[in-house]
Amino acid sequence: MYSILSIASLRERLIDEGILGAENCSPEENEQFQALLETGEPLPEGVYPTPESEYEFCRIPDSKLTPAEELNLIEVLKLKRVMTIQKWVSFFGVLTVISLILSTLLLFR
Q1: Contact yes or no for 78/10 (Cβ under 8 A)
Q2: pTM for this structure?
Q3: Which of 39, 57, 64, 78 is the most exposed place for a label (fewest CB within 10 A)?
Q4: What are phi and psi of 45, to 5 degrees?
Q5: Residue 4 and residue 11: Cα distance in Å, rounded?
Q6: Burial status of residue 79 (CB atoms within 10 A of its CB: 0-12, 13-18, 19 or more)
């Protein structure tokens, strides 16, 4: 079944943002999962490579997401990007107003 968790970049972003909780697997489990990958077998449900290394694995407990939950997670990521853009626009807007005020004061001195 297709899931947004199968897309590495989305999974990493959700983990980095703290939206999904991930538990690191033990070294013994890492070796077992690496052996599974080498033989071409799929990883168990809810086990994914970590963003840092393809040889380390993590377990995501809530890996059975409904399509509605997946859409909500994607919307959260979009909202975070929009908020970042909003902050930058505000920052540059304030800089522009300050520069206009200073220019006006220096012009009419």
Answers
A1: no
A2: 0.57
A3: 39
A4: -60, 130
A5: 7
A6: exposed
